[in-house]
Amino acid sequence: MLELQDICRSFSGKQVLHDVSLSAERGKLTGFVGGNGAGKTTTMRIILGVLAADSGHMRLDGAELGSQARSRFGYMPSERGLYPKMKVAEQITYLARLHGYSKSEATTRAVDLLTQLGLSERLKDPLEALSLGNQQRVQIAASLVHEPDVLILDEPFSGLDPFAVDLVLNVLTEKAASGAVVLFSSHQLDVVERLCDDLIIIGDGKILAAGDREDLRRRHGTLRYELASDADLSWVQNHSGIRTDEATENRVIFRAEESAAQQLLQDAVQRGPVTRFVPVLPTLSEIFRDFTNDSAPTLPQEATR
Ligand SMILES: Nc1ncnc2c1ncn2[C@@H]1O[C@H](COP(=O)(O)OP(=O)(O)OP(=O)(O)O)[C@@H](O)[C@H]1O
């Protein structure tokens, strides 16, 4: 497990990380979400050791994090950093060689990874001839080339089409299943909701919530209910103690305390057969808005990157 404890960091006297504590378990995909300027990249760069923390501790599997453990880290930075004129497969082979693979191992590894990422037709093209989404796949291949033990990805899904999202997801899931730590930041909450097992929400340099995705959905956000009946439900809108979010003749989605919801159910049963009454868990976007409304002026959907 990768653990950060009370990490602080300031730039020119302005504190941007405030006692950041988080953990990412082996075998799981951990999503790291927050609005613009929340502190995701700074945190990731500190994990990687390219930026120093002012204070705090970092551990991998209980041991203080040092350069030896970091040599098994893979990183995909948000600012892409490959050689535009170099051919795609050549580039990944070159990186594999730098990590100590023999020439034939490096070639095989490059071709396998790029094929897995859907780029088998583009191996001999220079990077700059590829679309931005495809260049990003190459960047992901670069972060994976040395079979990292801990994979840190800054916005790996931004700019990818749904097909590419699935390809990258398969690669990351496979990586996590092999026992690696996989931590990725993202603005795309729908993608994160679908992909990650665990979630960390950061706002204004502070960790706002963290844990198992489903657990977070159960614990946070406003609980809503769905009620459906064969009978007309138009009376529901005027029922005390509830607020309707959606309403048709035979189906409503409403917010209420549990006691008011139960009362409404009883009233509905007396008026006709109830065909459905279920709690509706909040989406990740709703939870994120609840948490960040106070702390981050910019919602991720408004991000331009
Ligand atoms: N080198 C730096 N010098 C000064 N301030 C910095 C530096 N790097 C980051 N910051 C500031 O730290 C804060 C956190 O930035 P960071 O890039 O970590 O946020 P982020 O969550 O990755 O945002 P985004 O989603 O917009 O990329 C911001 O206020 C940013 O301006």
TrEMBL record:
List, in alphabetical order, the Gene Ontology terms for molecular function in this entry: ATP binding; ATP hydrolysis activity
* Domain of life according to the entry: Bacteria
One Pfam match, given by its short name, reads ABC_tran
Give residue ranges for domain ABC transporter: 2-229
Q: Which UniProt keywords apply?
A: Antibiotic resistance, ATP-binding, Nucleotide-binding, Transport
Topology of this chain in the membrane: Peripheral membrane protein
Q: Which GO terms describe its biological process?
A: response to antibiotic
Task: State its location(s).
Answer: Cell membrane
On whether ATP-binding is a keyword of this UniProt record, the answer is yes
GO cellular component: a single term: plasma membrane
Protein family according to the UniProt entry: Belongs to the ABC transporter superfamily.
Spell out the protein name for this chain.
Answer: ATP-binding cassette domain-containing protein
Organism of origin is Nesterenkonia salmonea
